[in-house]
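As described in the Methods, two query proteins were run sequentially through the folding procedure within a single session, without resetting any intermediate state between them. The first query and its resulting structure tokens are shown here.
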Amino acid sequence: MSKKNIRILAIGFFVSGLILLMSAILMPNSPTASGQTEKVKDLESDITYLEEKIAQLELEQPVAAEQPSETEETAESEENSEKNETEEAAEEESQATEEDQTEEQADEEAVITATITINEGEPSSVAAGQLEANNILEDSMDFDDFLEENDYAPYVRPGNYDISSDMSYEQIAQTLMGH
């Protein structure tokens, strides 16, 4: 490009800028970037509110499932009044022991291993989705957020990876990064 052409281009940009400035000053009610910024802020506040509401509902849901119905509470209170304290203590100890043994067995048996395949150009969310589909993770979005927050997402490499359900998020991320 010649010097003359560059000057003409610069003058064109300058004149365009002046026209935009004048239109913003003379027509303050027209939709501009500032109007869009307000809409974005409104949407962000709506998203934040909805995320908080979701978290609140998720916290309430297990509580509702754990609460027994009124008829169950009445039956339990009648049974408890009939038992003496020593029988209750012995029963609680045996239940606690059985629950601990059951949990230990479930933990040992519940380890799931799966091969995750990441193809060239696929985002980290694909890997997280495969992990959830194979019952390695409960929430793929949570794991994908972990990758993003720790800046691991860009380093996830294509390939086949053996992942097990007893691995932590950090261990899974390191494996997916090829470390």
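Immediately afterward, the second query was submitted; its sequence and tokens are:
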Amino acid sequence: MLQLFANLALGLLMMISMMVMIHTFGLMAVTHVMSRVTDVIRLQGHRSRLLAMNTVVIGVFAVLSAEIWLWAFCYLLLGSFEDLTTALYFSASTFSTVGYGDLVPDHDWRVLAAIEGVCGLLMIGWSTAYLVAAGMRVGPFRPGEHF
């Protein structure tokens, strides 16, 4: 029972809080970088919508990747996996909710892995909402044209 509380404390209080902070500031940085890139690189005097969306997608991927790496380091520090490559592979498949099942974490930290899956689902959903908003605001999409 004590291990369950350790999983919940580490997963919900620390890791989820860090993910929200990383995601918030990461998406703010993506917005800033996209604005700067499209200000500097102009095609025929206009901002490129394609360049804007490409910058946003790469930025969102970088933010999600940073979160996956943080989970992988967490598993390493807990001793759940022996090397970074394995921890990173497990974290990526869990965060993306693919969950192949070929690797499992240490028995004591299974609930933490489930929390990572829910966290990943939320972060990917948040990223999707951000991409849709960016597509409507600066990208090639306009209300009523494509949907």
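The chain has a mean pLDDT of 88. We note this only descriptively and draw no conclusion about the first query from it.
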